[in-house]
Design goal:
The chain has 4 helices and 21 strands. By secondary structure, the protein is of the alpha/beta class. The protein has 2 domains: 39 residues; 153 residues, 3 Solenoid (UDP N-Acetylglucosamine Acyltransferase, domain 1). A hairpin with a 4-residue loop joins strand 20 and strand 21. The longest helix has 16 residues. The protein binds coenzyme A.
Length: 212
């Protein structure tokens, strides 16, 4: 992870006021000079130096971050990526360059999203999901994956380069998705196969939520 310098921190504050919430605070030099007497001050100075070296997030100054975007700790967002309004991004997420993420999408911790990935609106991406873009590494020819609006990708799924996950489709936890997933269907397993419909999933969800 790249260490964020002061200029990058300032810029990320400018493009998204929310980002400043996750930048670590430190005692200013002036305050230190005033306090610079005795052992306590030396301890404070050392602590302060450690805090200054902490990396919280790296958000490229070339990324476009929408309104009300929440980004948790140790997350990377690369050049020219576009993040829509109200997106929530968990800790330890890697979003590379030229990625698009639609509004209201939620990305849980430790998700890997390589260049050229396009993710729609209202999508849920579970922890540790991995998208890929290089079918035969290491090749300079890459192809992104597409996740259409309302899709759910459960924890630890892996999506093959070039695959499209259809609108409101569900990818079960730990699935290896090697082919396009039709809209409104649930797929599970490796390789992922259709298990049932999204309608059935919604019924199971309702039952789960209403059962005591
Ligand atoms: C897709 C999903 C909803 C399916 O759950 P379900 O419909 O309750 O499935 P069931 O537990 O009734 O299992 C039905 C069968 O499918 C199998 N199965 C269920 N989920 C599976 C999965 N992800 N991969 C492989 N097989 C699976 C079960 O072992 C069972 O097999 P059996 O009939 O031979 O015994 C669930 O696997 C899932 O991914 N939930 C989301 C978890 C998650 O990542 N949450 C977000 C982060 S906390």
């Amino acid at each position: 992870m790249k260490v964020k310098n002061k200029r990058e921190i300032k810029h990320s504050k400018k493009i998204n006021p929310n980002i400043k919430k996750v930048v670590s605070k430190s005692v200013s030099d002036k305050k230190l000079r005033i306090k610079d007497k005795g052992k306590k001050t030396i301890k404070q100075k050392k602590k302060n130096e450690r805090n200054n070296n902490l990396v919280t997030n790296y958000i490229s100054s070339k990324a476009k971050i929408g309104n009300n975007v929440k980004i948790w700790h140790f997350t990377y967002v690369g050049d020219n990526s576009i993040i829509g309004d109200n997106v929530m991004i968990g800790s330890l997420v890697h979003i590379d360059y030229n990625v698009k993420i639609g509004e209201n999408t939620r990305i849980e911790g430790s998700v890997y999203i390589p260049p050229l990935t396009t993710i729609g609106k209202n999508v849920f991406i579970g922890p540790g999901a991995t998208f890929t873009n290089d079918p035969y590494p290491m090749s300079p020819k890459m192809i992104g994956t597409i996740v259409q609006d309302g899709a759910i990708i459960a924890a630890r799924s892996v999506i093959k380069p070039g695959v499209t996950i259809g609108k409101n489709a569900v990818v079960g936890m730990g699935s290896i998705v090697t082919k396009d997933v039709p809209e409104e269907t649930v797929v599970i397993g490796h390789p992922a196969r259709i298990a049932y419909s999204k309608k059935e999933y919604d019924m199971k969800k309702l039952k789960w939520e209403s059962d005591n």
